[in-house]
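A favour, since you know our structure tokens better than I do. Could you add the entry underneath, on a fresh line?
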Amino acid sequence: MPLLPPEPVWIINNQTLEDYCQQWSALDAIALDTEFIRTDTFYPLPGLIQVGAGADVFLIDPLEISQWSPLAKLFENPNVIKVLHACSEDLEVFKLLTGTVPRPLFDTQLAAAFANLGFSMGYQALLKHILNIDLPKDETRSNWRQRPLTEAQIRYASLDVTHLLEVYQHLNQLLVQTPKKAWLDDECLSLTLNVLPYDPDNAWQDVKRAWQLRPQQLAVLKALCYFRETAAREEDVPRNRIIPKGSLWPLARFQPKAINALREIPDMRSSIIRHHGEQILDIINAASQIPAEQRPGSLPPPLPKNAKDWGKQIKALISQQAVELEIPLELLTPNKLTSPLLRSWLDNGHFSLPDTLTGWRRDIIGPPLINQLNAMEEKGH
């Protein structure tokens, strides 16, 4: 027998949205979700916004709404907790529509990880685990911008928020009397602080094998990545429609000077050469002549083999901390922690925490990890 959500209330005009936002502002918590399309665009195209309030489900049609300030005001109301699951892309949709994001935020996927139920749990699995409810997932890839939506789409979208507040209450109860609740709050707040960041200056540092390039080549790489990032946003197309990811390194390395030479670059499709070829050549030419003192410094090479044993030690120490704290290792260990720790040891002969490790993790991981590593170093590993 199919799981049936309550009959949703449609919100398809500005006045109705304002009226309901005023009602929701009196609640302790609301559930939120979005449906969107992101196949041929840089930014997500909103198709639907779902709101769970008490036992009711509301569907906001973003194709019909033009005044988003009431929802923005609700998002910024500190007295209403906004409950979402795995919300990073939802936050982008909300930022684009309303200019702001929901705060305070309670992400049930993160909360499940802090409660040690599992890392990166899908909503379907979480609902099964907590409420023993089987949620169908049969409309994930459907066209959410079509009108009218099908009955199956409406049912699917409604179910995504029907039980979300129950899940929130259960998880909050598990965490509220523990230090983990403050860690969760810290983590959820950090999610809301860098939605749709715009920093094309640093995009070049993420290109694989960039460490193999000389400073003159890195100047070209940086200029190409800047253009790729800004043009993708301006044209609202995926980055690979501007310059394919696999073309960036060879373009910087070989610096072609003619359209025919671009055709020799891996992944450079004819459509890209037709639309952006001349511009790419101009960027390469200009960046290749940047004075030496203005070029980026060389990137450090991969860590040497003698650092691998230390990497294993770091992972083992953090794994032990995760077991003691009863949280998943993946939650405790942020990206790019091991490498900067090892580089600090290689450069200075002792371990120090990178500035990128902040918040609750720095407090929890930091002192014991650094003390143990430096003690091991003094004893000769």
